[in-house]
Amino acid sequence: xxxxxxxxxxxxKAGLRATSARLAVMRMLRQASSPLSHAEIAExxxxxxxxxxxxxxxxxxxxxxxxxxxxxLGDHVWRFEAVDPDHPDDGHPHFVCTMCxxxxxxxxxxxxxxxxxxxxxxxxxxxxxxxxxxxxCGQA
Length: 140
Prior knowledge:
single chain, alpha+beta, Arc Repressor Mutant, subunit A, Dna Ligase, domain 1, 16% strand, globular
């Protein structure tokens, strides 16, 4: 019950109405261990009678107000994840298995610059994506 109230306050503070659909989408994003696609969210929330268009609108609204982020991992599918409003710039790298397509968040990874080609910065890094073979596929 506390979680629902906390989500209501968070959504309202962002300037949005705390509808049941928006609460369900936000709860799902916060409980997920990796970014979720619209299709994955829609499949789970269909049981609650929430249609795909409503979910898409809510994902757009949550992204625009800064409560969610949207990322594309090279497969032309947008994936969404919750953003901590107290630390909106705390991005993290993602890992995609090239064999099974599993996406993992590397929340605790620290990326260090090991080589310097130029002392002049090239820009701001917004996203880091690592590709490789996950443990499960590596053992097969």
